[in-house]
Predict the structure.
Amino acid sequence: PMTTAHKPTFHPAVGSANPGGYRYYAPRAQYSSRDMPGQLTLKTRGVGQGTSQEINQRDLKAELLKKEKEHFDKKENERRKKLGLPPLAGNEEVAPTLTLENVDLSKYDDDDDDDDDSDNSDDDDDSDDDEDEKAELERELARIKKEREEAKLRQQMEEASKRDHERTLAASRGNPLLNLGGKSDFNVKKRWYEDVVFKNQARDAPKAQKTFVNDTIRNAFHRKFLSKYMK
């Protein structure tokens, strides 16, 4: 029987319960959402969505000037608040700053005025005690400063004497005539490998460099052949 392998595949085979069979499908139609029937008419703005009539009835310049004034008033009030000044008049959003003029001080008066004399005497005693403690602290502080200065001066003197001693010792040891150490031999000491029998044995013999001669009789191969077989 003849096979169908030689036939061109016009329709690709699709795996299914019936393998090897051709299936013809209708082409799939793709539509954009803008091509749907609901997009045939343009949408218009409704009431309260900024229609042209509403925009024409608004005074845009007055609104812009109002917003600019509110912005600059806010900045000015912030600056005045940092400086401790009262806010601008006519601004209801900013809380008023408490001053002596707009605060009622009568509600802060004390009812027990009879205890003022005793309080004053207690304050005097406390002030005397504070002055005595302050004077004692100042004397203690002066004593501590004096002790620290003396310790610092003592440490500087010790470091200076130590540096002088080290400098003198280094100068005496650096002079070979003064630093004999019980020996009078001034000869230069030899190294351990200078008096050996075999010396410089690790050096490789110089290798002969290969040269190219364009002559079959005078080249290196012909000379080596003659020296090997003809001598």
Notes: Helices lie at 52-57, 60-83, 116-174, 220-229.
